[in-house]
Write a structure and sequence with these properties.
ATPase_NBD, glycerol kinase, kinase, single chain, alpha+beta, ATP-binding
Length: 522
């Protein structure tokens, strides 16, 4: 069978949309479809999704992508070897095993309703905010699944009783989708992978199993948790009722971990994904590094049941592309997201305006859930182009904050650097089509930024993991980045060092002004 007749499918379930992409053996997309789904905001700081709508979005995308590939002459039906899955992390679902229905909406990763639970735990536990860091690498934060699960157990009528009866189960979005894809109420598989499990606050990073002491401390019953598996292995076949049936699901990774695989990030290499939020990960190899500068220790990937674990340092930024959506949907300054580049290009600077998008607090490296969004430095000279440019700069400043922390933690000048070579940052995600954004990023870092030819590397990473499990790809093929780099676009810094330092100092001042604003009167 030729390379053109072998296919891998990839489900890419993000924060605002779902995609299904079909790749051939040469990792070229031959069919794809994407749909957006509803965002629910019941209260300030609350963000929810309808789990059933997410399942339906996968069904639609599968069917449409298959139709497109077939219409273009690709015999996907006979050549499809496996399906990979990548997903928004931390987002939490509880559902009934008997009915297959969610017991509440999915609580999304950026939701901050658990702030009071976090504060209570910080006061009660001897280790305070970092009480669980030794086992899971994560601080107590609204970000992670365990706190969302505690809120659900405390606030959803009938959930505690369903747990006692053995009918309620918990999962992140990967778990929810795999359960539905492999049968649902008819013996659907209840599993998660190491990368998604590492974001719950419940998995021990060393044993790669649920941490009993953490479960006991939080009062979370182990029987509602899924089985933890690797990122690349045959999990189970897709059952009847789906547009594709009988094909194995063979790869599963959280979106940022999938992007690392899609970007061929080996030990010492870093990538930044720009989506709703921004996520910067540095592969630290088989060594787990504990951060002293506000970053998270996490699993990078484990590409097979017997494969070694690669760990990572991560800096998570809650609001990146979401700030552009805010300009479009809430302020009406732009009518589509791609307009921001032209609008921001009408000025050569922000005119002294700094925008801190702390809509739901600040994640790494600040970890301030009391922060709120601010725009400072406004004068009568300020116009909407200055605001637009300040929004783009805010994304890049936040990435720089994280990379600076990574440099300190890695105790070396640069993350992706080997002797005799300069540091460069691999980037991906939808926002990276914005050339101005990428140039600003290079200028503020003082280092090159490299954008691959295929910027949607999350879906590609999941396809690689699935293909690896069924023998379509080898690790050497996945991690040989030479050819990919030749096709990439590199943005080199042109900003003078003195001005860069002044802008960074001004940004840090603006960030400090965003603190302690959570209780402002309505």
């Amino acid at each position: 069978m030729s390379d053109e007749e072998v296919f891998i499918g990839s489900i890419d379930q993000g924060t605002t949309s779902t995609r299904f992409i079909i790749y051939d053996r040469l990792a070229r997309a031959v069919g794809s479809h994407q749909v957006e789904f509803t965002q629910f905001y019941p209260q300030a700081g609350w963000v929810e999704h309808d789990p059933m709508e997410i399942v339906e979005s996968v069904r639609i995308c599968m069917a449409k992508a298959l139709d497109k590939a077939t219409a273009d002459g690709h015999n996907v039906d006979s050549g499809l070897k496996a399906i990979g899955l990548t997903n928004q992390r931390e987002t939490t679902v509880v559902w009934s095993k008997s009915t297959g229905l969610p017991l509440y909406n999915a609580i999304v990763w950026m939701d901050v309703r658990t702030s009071s639970i976090c504060r209570k735990l910080e006061k009660e536990l001897p280790g305070g905010r970092t009480h669980f860091v030794e086992s899971c690498g994560l601080p107590i934060s609204t970000y992670f699944s365990a706190l969302k699960l505690l809120w659900l157990l405390d606030n959803v009528d009938g959930l505690s009783e369903a747990v006692k009866k053995g009918d309620a189960v918990f999962g992140t979005i990967d778990t929810w989708l795999i359960w539905n894809l492999t049968g649902g109420v008819e013996n659907g598989l209840h599993v998660t992978d190491v990368s998604n499990a590492s974001r719950t606050m419940l998995m021990n990073l060393k044993t790669l199993d649920w941490d009993k002491s953490t479960l006991d401390t939080l009062g979370i019953p182990a029987n509602i948790l899924p089985k933890i598996i690797s990122n690349s292995e045959i999990i189970g076949n897709i059952t009847k009722g789906w547009p594709i049936t009988g094909i194995p699901i063979a790869g599963c990774l959280g979106d940022q971990h999938a992007a690392m695989v899609g970007q061929s990030c080996r030990k010492g290499e870093a990538k930044s994904t720009y989506g709703t939020g921004a996520f910067i990960l540095l592969n630290t190899g088989e060594e787990m590094i504990k951060s002293n500068h506000g970053l998270l220790s996490t699993v990078a990937y484990k590409l097979g049941p017997k494969a070694p674990v690669n760990y990572a340092l991560e800096g998570s930024i809650a609001i990146a592309g979401a700030a552009v959506q805010w300009l479009r949907d809430s302020l009406g300054i732009i009518s589509s997201a791609n307009e921001i580049e032209d609008l921001a290009s009408k000025v050569t600077s922000t005119g002294g305006v700094y925008f801190v998008p702390a809509f739901n607090g600040l994640f790494a490296p600040w970890w301030r859930d009391d922060a709120r969004g601010i725009c400072v430095g406004i004068t009568r000279f300020t116009n909407k182009s200055h605001i637009a440019r300040a929004v783009l700069e805010s994304m890049c400043f936040q990435v720089k904050d994280v990379l600076d922390s990574m440099h300190k933690d890695a105790a070396q000048k640069s993350d992706g650097k080997t002797e005799g070579t300069e540091f460069l940052l691999r980037v991906d995600g939808g926002a990276t089509v914005n050339n101005l954004l990428m140039q600003i990023q290079a200028d503020l870092l003082g280092s090159p930024v490299v954008r691959p030819a295929d910027i949607e590397t999350t879906a590609l990473g999941a396809a690689y993991a699935a293909g690896l499990a069924v023998g379509v790809y080898t690790q050497d093929e996945i991690f040989s980045s030479g050819e990919k780099m030749k096709k990439a676009t590199t943005f080199k810094p042109v900003l003078e060092e003195e001005l860069r330092k002044k802008k960074v100092d001004s940004w840090c001042l603006a960030v400090s002004r965003s603190f302690d604003l959570a209780d402002l009167s309505l």
